[in-house]
Predict the structure of Cysteine hydrolase.
Amino acid sequence: MQIKEPDNRKKKKLLVVVDMQNDFIDGALGTPQAQKIVTNVAERIKQAADEGETIVYTRDTHSADYPTTLEGKLLSVPHCIAGTHGHEISDRLPLLGKIIDKPTFGSVELGRFAQENKFEEAELIGLCTDICVLSNAMLLRAFCPEMQVSVRADCCAGVTPDSHETALNAMKNCQVRIL
């Protein structure tokens, strides 16, 4: 009988930091829940860097004509306008990776990046659980159906605590692991 040697190679992992921007933390659309996760997110980013994980940040990105867009007509609060303080990733977080600007909730560019780089695992953290985290988790599942996708609940916040929980349950039903 042949004994199988353990596979000691590290899995190729991706940490996606979703929309941890000033406008979503304490700016135009900030919430107390978003403010509460900043320390957890910073610690998770540092841990990922120490463990050699690839880190990608997404940024919700709008232009000055935001009020005339479909989203702007449905959500009439201008936010994350390119070139403004609100658009920037919070300076309370270490910036240790690539930034992907996205004009909508989910990023096709992120999906392609994960697919092209053949990640075995992706973990999402950030804002908002019920909008952009959910959208990007589903896109990653679509682009990389064999990749384990996880969401770290204590590093995410939704628009409301109830919508955060609803989104976590929806993702769990779609085979996203909730940590």
